[in-house]
Amino acid sequence: MSALELAAAVRSGSRSARQVTEEHLARIAAGETEIHAFNLVTVEAALRTADGIDEQLARGEDPGPLAGVPVALKDNLCTRGIPTTCSSRILEGWLPPYDATVVARLRAAGAVMVGKANLDEFAMGSSTENSAFGPTRNPRDSSRVPGGSSGGSAAAVAANFAPIALGSDTGGSIRQPAALCGVVGVKPTYGLVSRYGLVAFASSLDQVGPLAATVADAAAVLEVVAGHDPADSTSLRQPAPDLAAALGEGVAGLRVGVVSELMRGSVDVNGRVREAADALARAGADVEEVSVPAVAHGLSAYYLIAPAEASSNLARYDGVRYGLRVDGPDVTTMYSATRAAGFGPEVKRRIMLGAYALSAGYYDAYYAQAQRVRTLIIDSFETAYRRFDALLAPTAPTTAFRLGEKTGDPLTMYLSDVCTIAANLTGHPAISVPYGVGDDGLPVGVQVLAPALGEPVMFKVAAVLEAAAGSAAAGGAADAGAEVGGIR
């Protein structure tokens, strides 16, 4: 059942929240050893929350639109009194004294947290192999990565451990794992969803968003967590968007551009994107290719801006205020030993790169130049959106790669985000929708991009693609007499 179907069943009384929670906890118990989607499964807390929802219903109260729906939370979202590790040893033993705003809003909507999902340490990675607690495996093929950095969240949804999850997206960290795991992933407009309680990686790029099994479920979660938050100084003074109404409106008359510079994927991935473009054209959209020239420089700009911001944000982990502390004979030695023991290789690599880019004599040549390139990318997309209502591209250049395949070559790993980074640099929304499979039978994600606050149009396009993908899969299964790729 989808999240919306589960919530309707709980609210109607045909199912109890406890029953739904127990079923999902049983699935986690059966499959978590193989997948490792979670750093922590919150069994007792989940059952207490579920019982509280059932008690509300017994009193005639409405627990909210996500009543009884299990949710996995990426382990960089603060949860009061429950460990938040960012998959790093340096936060060992830290219990946040408050909930992130998005967590509080999910609780108020009746959702039931079943666990804290694994991630690349401090959200730095594209495969969830950088976690201090071990890698997550892709439920579609356990020899493959789930993507990253929100790989645990995507895997939890793909394995049906939870119908919805929250992740964070700094350069594609929701959308890329969504594509590799065959689920829906949304990066909202920057500022539409509060970052209060999200442990910062790169503050001008980070954004919280949903992962879900269906487009409608993702829309419902975004409606719950979006909206102005006075605790976040970057929060837009915008109400949560009405997305449910947009899902059935279709794409007739919409102008959709296929970004030629982002068609850099494998032949089979590009083929799925072109099939998706054809499906939109059949549904009444005006589809054509478009050039966004500056996007070609996105990867270079991102890997200067993001590490620079990370080097500043991660300076607070010093062994004094919270988390891990390695004692030494003086403060300088303690500080150095704590950070050496607490941070993993990828985090250290990015801190050093960012500190170098911000250092005297190099700031203008690297960080300032990257910000100028970022402005060019924003201008290029604004030019494209004068002609088009939405844009189309691959989410990831390939399907899920094998565990260990790219860990020895950071640059090759970084290229996994080449199609997703632009939306973070511009602050615009984007969504990944599963669209068929590659030649290896693994999921392919098609990405829909829209201008700032263009979520309603983006979800219109996503809903049509989801329906078209379902029809194509059903037709293929009928022709072959079997399921296509095993994707729901």
Architecture overview:
The chain is α/β, with parallel strands linked by helices and 488 residues long. The protein has two domains: 3-300 and 367-480, Amidase signature (AS) domain (Amidase signature (AS) enzymes); 301-366, no CATH class. The chain is 41% helix and 12% strand. The protein is built from 15 helices and eleven strands. The chain has an eleven-stranded mixed β-sheet with strand order 1-3-2-4-6-5-10-11-9-7-8, sandwiched between helices. Helix 9 (298-313) crosses helix 11 (345-358). The chain is globular, with a radius of gyration of 21 Å. The model is unreliable at 476-488 (pLDDT under 50).
Keywords for this structure?
488 residues; alpha/beta; 11-stranded mixed sheet; 12% strand
Which strands sit side by side, in order, in the main sheet? Answer: 1-3-2-4-6-5-10-11-9-7-8
Question: How many independent structural domains?
Answer: 2
Query: What does the main sheet amount to?
Result: 11 strands, mixed
What fraction, in percent, of the residue positions are helical? 40-55%
CATH architecture assignment of the largest domain: Alpha-Beta Complex
Q: What structural class do helix, strand and pairing data support?
A: alpha/beta
**How much is the average pLDDT?**
95
C-alpha end-to-end distance: 11 Å
> What best-fitting shape do the alpha-carbon axes yield?
globular
Series of secondary-structure elements, N-terminal to C-terminal = HHEHEHEHEHEEHEHEHHHHEHHEEH
What's the Cα radius of gyration?
21 Å
Would you state the CATH class of the largest domain?
Alpha Beta
Strand content: 5-15%
The fourth-level CATH homologous superfamily of the largest domain is Amidase signature (AS) domain
Could you tell me the CATH topology label of the largest domain.
Amidase signature (AS) enzymes
The number of strands is 11
